[in-house]
Design goal:
Domain EAL: 445-697
Structural class: alpha+beta
GO biological process, one term: methylation
Strand order of the largest sheet: 18-19-21-22-23-24-25-26
Protein name: Diguanylate cyclase
Largest sheet: 8 strands, mixed, barrel
Coiled coil: 133-160
Number of domains: 4
Shape: elongated
Domain PAC: 224-277
CATH topology of the largest domain: TIM Barrel
Distance between the termini: 151 Å
Number of helices: 25
């Protein structure tokens, strides 16, 4: 019995030792497996025998909850058959089976996740089990999915662009990739393009090959961007290509790859050519336009062996055709004239449309004897009837010409001279005139008139103010506004240099309105800024005086500026009184508004004392020519007579142009009331007038 107990004790001790050793190994295995981030699962073909902490965390259950559970519970139903077949092959020790498997699983909360499993078959406790190492690939798979989606989207975008993208491995001398648009650009199957490294060079237009080759030799210097032509392989058309090539270098600065894009810019080129054509041609007639004419003349002046004739052709009374027969008829007529001009000119030169009904012809290498003959032929051809909409229309033209190398030394003067000659011819209608130097004054006036038309818009005018004084006390009693023109090239111009041209051209009304507007706003400014304010008089031209809008314009600006009408005055000349009835009516309206009227330059023009006594005027201004004669018996007598006349009509008298102390003394002795002139002050700019006159006199 005792022996038996000893044996049992020994057995129990041995077993205990093995058990202890087993438990130590188990604890060590669990500690190691729990420290690993990947999930470790030991399972049969149906049941989980062991799972580490990472496996429980991956599935989302408490520790030890997986043991004894059917592993199919955590696998997506659609993947069960794949997993079952895979495990079956594993148990049958099929060496061909891939130990790696990707499946989709289900967490305890129902959410899905992706895992990658690596498994091995082993024997544990005398039974075959599977040891699986699982890694959560959900984030990685999501990234891969997003990457694939982006890649597909990018490929679709690239393939739908009109830009071809390509890449060449320089070492292997092989095209690595090319996008689908390359096929359309070159007119060739994409596969053929990829196979033939030199295909793109073979289709370059023969005239461009050498230039492209030279450009390619500079690739090591950096990005190459150039344009060339190709022969489209499908249509055989010439296409324009823009090629951007980027060299890729390795760390040793060696060229290893070329990346680039190609764009078919054929339409862009054609559009540019069309725009270029429109920029230098008249849209209606197809003739060259003024810009093109000037460009050609500039080029011709560099190489002229003989005379060049420039003709300006202006159709007479063409506006009447537009007004009576319509603009469509007028356009057809202009087109027919253009065709006739091209026929007449032929290979001798070229024709251009300058705008409206004005054309120009340039004939090179023509001698003076041939000029008259050519112009006569031109005039005769233009007079032939023109059939438009079953109507026979007859036109004439006024032609002005100038000869390069005789009349001028540069093309710009040639243009000016021809235009001046054409204006001279226009005065006679159906006539031609060649420029001569006697037309120089007309030229100056035309140039000045042209500038005058934009002077108001460009704010080139400026008002100067000349003060007027009471002769006895020296008290400031008013000022006269005098216009000046700050011409961009001719400098400071006085009214005597441009007012006559403004009158003749009809621009005087616009300029006159500008003066009235600016004087009123100047007075308004002086009042607002608390400057001492005196009445300001403005010169009215005859044309402006008889303008139907004069009274309404004056009333409007007075209402706009809210200044007293007594602060505004007008100076008129005696010539206004020729049409006494109309003049008197206008003057009455001005007086009713409250505006004073002075007769300027009195004694130099037409006047009737009978009319003068009946006109509602308030002042006579003695012309400076009479003031200059003061000191002589006749001079003093005339001035005395004017002063006596004025006082007899109860009018004030202002002597203008007073330049010396002697003149001032004489005028005071003759009974003159008021004076203005350089003896007191020259006309002053606004700022100087404010500083030295307004403040100094109050």
């Amino acid at each position: 019995m005792a022996e038996t107990n000893k044996r049992i004790g020994r057995v129990d001790s041995s077993q205990l030792k093995r058990l202890k050793s087993f438990l130590q190994i188990k604890h060590l295995f669990e500690a190691v497996s729990d420290a690993i981030e990947e999930a470790i699962i030991i399972h049969t073909d149906t049941v989980v025998l062991y799972a580490n902490r990472a496996a429980h965390k991956m599935v989302g259950v408490d520790q030890s909850s997986l043991t004894g559970q059917p592993f199919a519970k955590f696998i997506l139903k659609d993947h069960l058959n794949v997993v079952s077949d895979w495990i079956h092959c594993m148990y049958s020790e099929d060496r061909k089976i891939d130990p790696r498997l990707e499946i989709k699983c289900i967490r305890d909360d129902g959410s899905l996740f992706d895992i990658e499993v690596i498994s091995r078959l082993l024997t544990w406790n005398k039974q075959k089990v599977v040891l699986s190492l699982a890694r959560d690939r959900t984030n990685l798979n999501n990234l891969q999915t997003e990457y694939n989606r982006t890649q597909n989207l990018l490929e679709k975008i690239i393939d739908n662009l009109e830009v071809g993208i390509w890449s060449v491995d320089v070492f292997r001398d092989q095209i690595i990739t090319a996008s689908k648009p390359v096929s359309n650009i070159y007119g060739v199957d994409l596969g053929e393009f990829l196979e033939n490294r030199n295909f793109w060079q073979e289709v370059i237009h023969p005239d461009d090959k050498e230039r492209v080759k030279k450009a390619q030799n500079k690739l090591n210097s950096g990005v190459l961007r150039h344009q060339y032509r190709i022969i489209h392989q499908e249509s055989s058309e010439i296409r324009y290509i823009e090629d951007l090539t980027v060299p890729v270098l390795n760390e040793n600065k060696e060229l290893i790859r070329l990346d680039g894009i190609v764009i078919d810019i054929t339409k862009q080129k054609h559009d540019e050519e069309q725009l270029q054509h429109l920029a230098y041609h008249d849209d209606l007639t197809g003739l060259l336009n003024r810009k093109s004419l000037e460009k050609k003349l500039a080029a011709m002046q560099e190489d002229v062996e003989r005379n060049v004739l420039l003709l300006y052709v202006d159709l007479d009374r063409f506006g009447r055709i537009n007004d009576t027969l319509g603009y469509e008829t007028g356009d057809i007529l202009l087109q027919e004239v253009a065709e006739r001009l091209k026929t007449i000119v032929g290979e001798q030169g070229f024709a251009a449309r300058m705008g409206g009904d004005d054309f120009a012809i340039v004939i090179s290498n023509i001698n003076e004897k041939e000029i008259n003959s050519f112009i006569n032929e031109l005039s005769k051809e233009l007079k032939r009837e023109i059939l438009v909409k079953e109507m026979n229309i007859y036109i004439t033209a006024s032609i002005g010409g100038a000869i390069y190398a005789k009349d001028t030394e540069n093309y710009q003067e040639l243009l000016n001279h021809a235009e001046i000659a054409q204006i001279s011819a226009k005065k006679m209608t159906d006539y031609y005139v060649l420029y001569n130097k006697d037309m120089s004054q007309l030229k100056s006036n035309i140039i000045l008139e042209s500038s005058l038309r934009t002077a108001v818009e460009r704010d080139e005018f400026e008002l100067y103010y000349q003060p007027q004084y009471k002769i006895k006390t020296g008290e400031l009693i008013g000022a006269e506004a005098l216009i000046r023109w700050n011409h961009p090239t001719l400098g400071h111009l006085g009214p005597n240099e441009f007012i006559a041209i403004a009158e003749e051209s009809g621009l005087i009304e616009e300029i006159g309105r500008w003066v009235i507007h600016n004087v009123c706003y100047q007075i308004k400014y002086w009042k607002e800024e608390r400057y001492p304010v005196v009445p300001v008089s403005i010169n009215l031209s005859v044309r402006q005086f008889y303008s139907k809008n004069l009274i309404s314009d004056i009333k409007g600006i007075l209402a706009e500026t809210q200044i007293a009408s007594e602060l505004l005055g007008f100076e008129i000349t005696e010539s206004i009184a020729i049409d006494f009835k109309v003049a008197n009516s206008v003057l009455e309206e001005l007086r009713n508004i409250g505006i004073g009227i002075s007769v300027d330059d009195f004694g130099t023009g037409y006047s009737s004392l009978a009319y003068l006594s009946k006109m509602p005027i308030s002042c006579l201004k003695i012309d400076r020519s009479f003031i200059n004669n003061l000191g002589s018996k006749d001079g003093n007598s005339i001035v005395k007579a004017i002063i006596t006349l004025a006082k007899g009509l109860d009018l004030k008298v202002v002597a203008e142009g007073v330049e010396t102390a002697e003149q001032k003394v004489e005028l005071e002795e003759l009974g003159c009331d008021f004076v203005q002139g350089y003896f007191y002050s020259k006309p002053l700019s606004v700022s100087v007038f404010e500083r030295s006159i307004l403040y100094e006199n109050f």
